[in-house]
Amino acid sequence: MNDINAWVWWLIGAAALGIPLVVTAMPEFGMLAVGAGAAAIAAGLGGGVVLQVLVFAAVSVALIAVVRPVAARHRAQQPQLATGVEALKGKQAVVLERVDSSGGGRIKLGGEIWSARALDSGQAYEVGQEVDVVDIDGATAIVM
Predict the structure, then answer these.
(1) Which long-range contacts (CB under 8 A, 24 or more apart) does 65-73 make?
(2) Which helix (H) or strand (E) holds 71?
(3) What's the CA angle centered on 140, arms 138 and 143, to 5 degrees?
(4) Which of 25, 32, 88, 125 has the greatest count of CB atoms below 10 A from its CB?
């Protein structure tokens, strides 16, 4: 054990921290692995054990303090491009078959024919009227 250099142990530690990063997808393990890599560089340059531990701690804490809040802010942002049914909300459609609250009507939405029902129970839309899509419930567009 004594004939293996300290930098090799730090690289083994970095690899060992990379395994839970891949398994759990927790980026903090990656930041600790980078800190262990920095400590391996310090050991390779001849730094003592105290310097190696300080480099490991400083780099790991700095990465966690800087990268983690940025990642959390990006994760909390809503996507700017709506896709799927979210992209259909707010679009206009044309009534093909009478639409009321019972859900038996049809509309043409984005070039496709959708089943539709009125948002208001007392409201009905006749053939040819333009309606606004307010929600999608399964394969049925909710219109007003």
Answers:
(1) 67/27, 67/31, 68/27, 68/28, 68/31, 71/27
(2) helix 49-76
(3) 130
(4) 32
Locus of tokens 């060992």: 16
Which string of b and e fits 26-37 if b means at least 16 CB within 10 Å? eebbbbbbbbbb
| Beta strand pairing call for 130-137 and 140-143 | antiparallel
The string of pLDDT tens digits covering residues 84-101 is 888 889 899 999 999 998
| The pair of three-digit structure tokens given for residue 110, joined into one six-digit string | 């984005």
Distance CA 91, CA 135 (A): 10
Output the pLDDT for position 3.
Answer: 54
| Closest to 132 in 3D by CA, of 103, 89, 84 | 89
Q: How many CB atoms lie within 10 A of CB 17?
A: 20
What are the tens digits of pLDDT across the range 21-40? 889 988 889 999 999 999 99
Largest CA distance in the chain: 86
* pLDDT the model gives residue 2: 53
Token pair for 3: 């004939």
Residue ranges, the chain, pLDDT below 50:
1
